[in-house]
Amino acid sequence: MAEKMCVSLSFAKDNADKATVAFVVANAAAASGKETLVFLSIEGVRLSQKGYADDVREEGFSPLKDLMASFVEAGGRIWVCSPCFKKRGLAEGNLVPGATIVGGAKLVEFLSGGTPCLSY
User: Fold this and answer.
1) Which residues make Cβ contacts (< 8 Å) with residue 119, sequence separation at least 6?
2) What rounded mean pLDDT belongs to the chain?
3) pTM for the full predicted model
4) Cα 56 to Cα 54: distance, rounded to the nearest angstrom
């Protein structure tokens, strides 16, 4: 069984349901002891900004900001696609806890060796 898990998320407020479910799954993986990474790309990079997810809540789920905080508290990491981040002119000084801006090579390295990756 794989000891790592990646959840790739390319949505934010443009599909709050997918963004929420991605962090539900990531929390489950982290809680099971897997080294877990959420990779934010395209519009998903907006979730890397403090306060952005504060008003996102899908019926039947915890608020997205709480899911993100729980994920990081459980040891999960949030990687943010550097080109996507720069394209949107976001602020490096405003990253949520646990978020790191990375290039694609870092993700490829994490996935090498067969790490499963779910995409939302």
Assistant:
1) 7, 8, 9, 10
2) 97
3) 0.96
4) 6
Structurally, at CATH architecture level, domain 4-119 sits in 3-Layer(aba) Sandwich (3.40)
List beta partners, residue 11: none
Domain ranges of the chain: 4-119
Which structure tokens are listed for 97? 């806890």
pLDDT tens, residue by residue, 92-111: 999 999 999 999 999 999 99
DSSP for residue 96: P
Sheet bearing 117-119, strands edge to edge: 99-102, 77-81, 35-40, 4-9, 117-119
Query: Left, alpha or beta for 44 (phi > 0: left; psi -120 to 50: alpha)?
Result: alpha
Long-range CB contact pairs, 80-87, < 8 A, 24+: 80/40, 80/45, 80/48, 81/39, 81/40, 81/41, 81/42, 81/45, 84/40, 84/41, 84/42, 84/44, 84/45, 85/45, 85/48
Where is 97: in which H helix or E strand? none
